[in-house]
Amino acid sequence: MAQPDMLLVEDDAALAELVTWHFTREGYSVRQTGNGEEAMVMVRERLPDIVLLDWMVEGLSGIEICRQLRRAAATANVPIIMLTARGEEEDRVRGLQTGADDYVTKPFSPRELVARVAAVLRRVRPALAGAAITYADIEMDIVGHKVKRAGKNVALGPTEYRLLRHFLEHPGRVFSREHLLDSVWGHDSDNELRTVDVHIRRLRKAINDGGGGDELPDIIRTVRSAGYSLDMDLAG
Amino acid sequence: MAQPDMLLVEDDAALAELVTWHFTREGYSVRQTGNGEEAMVMVRERLPDIVLLDWMVEGLSGIEICRQLRRAAATANVPIIMLTARGEEEDRVRGLQTGADDYVTKPFSPRELVARVAAVLRRVRPALAGAAITYADIEMDIVGHKVKRAGKNVALGPTEYRLLRHFLEHPGRVFSREHLLDSVWGHDSDNELRTVDVHIRRLRKAINDGGGGDELPDIIRTVRSAGYSLDMDLAG
DNA sequence: AGCGACTGTCATCAAACTGTCACCAAAATG
DNA sequence: CATTTTGGTGACAGTTTGATGACAGTCGCT
Q: Is B99 left (phi over 0), alpha (psi -120 to 50) or beta?
């Protein structure tokens, strides 16, 4: 999930556009509405990774949306950030008690809002905020020890995992077998150089197999007489 | 842990007393210091459940304390709320990026601060705020010490309960046996690593058995050579 | 003391993972 | 084109790792 999915519930069109622009630029996918009931529909359509919620919207009030989201098991863990007018302390307290994860006071600077959202995401879904490494259509969730290719989970053995991680941390770079033995197996490893080949094969097999016998493009490039590299560029 | 343990780092004596008074009244146990280095010592003495951190304190600056806490594995997950003077937006953004969980702008109302702290605790350590924790079809009622899977009550021994609770507080994350022994059994435990396996099995048996011999999907994932995690995502 | 629930450790079994080889295919080399 | 070099592949035996069932010790309660 390289692109966090944000739902923005805000009826001030100008503000909504500003916020949308900023988060789109940050790599978020943003859906927006100014109506509370519509917001609930959109949540059901697709579960957002985070909800920005204006306190005063038509249809359902912010507090009501918040409560409904928290009540349903499916949406209970979706982080919510409230947007409140300045000084409405009552509302803020009530909002936090209702289950909002954070609030931001208008007027806010876009930069601050972005930092806030990132902070909440980092906490709730580390994979969405830096604890994950991404390259092309590969995604590695470090804390969860999980790997996805084109959205599908990929099962890797420990060594293949470490190998892929090494590549992901230096994408595009070519590594010799010696170097890989050193950094993936450990400085004291006295394995055959060809052992690397075998694990490269295993990694390829695991990561290029798209489920039903399909073949995804090979993302590991063999550089003759030099080594291997992670590379999505097929021609070239 | 009915009584959350708070560390207050604030050098304005009057303010410190005010805050202490309020949180004590709310049932917190509050330790206080006005010096940054002393704060680090106090953290090491006993791990607080939450840190309130004035941005400007003697000894070590707030940002430095924050960074040091985040760096050490033992303290990386302790929630931190910064107290900043009004309008220092730069600092706030920087603070959030450094890893603070939230900030409150002076002057603040005690009531708001209490709500903020409660919100952060609810998020990071739901157990301390009395709420229930939910993940997939598992439900843990902290105050009632009860667990449900798919709506049905599940009987757990004390250790299995703590183990599951730890997983629920960090869903999706992989924990090594060492880490689990540390955080579920206690820092001073000198048990065999394999003890964890056994309790994982007991937890699995209890939680995957759907009553009449039915088998619910295993929600605990074994990650070879790494540890275990709570994970509902079977295919992907 | 007796009972029952809970714990920690072991020995054993099964499965997953690893490293090496021999052999084949492809690419360079002359 | 023949030869040499380099990488791909399938098989295999050894090793590591996790799952499991059994068992004895501990604790709290009656």
A: left
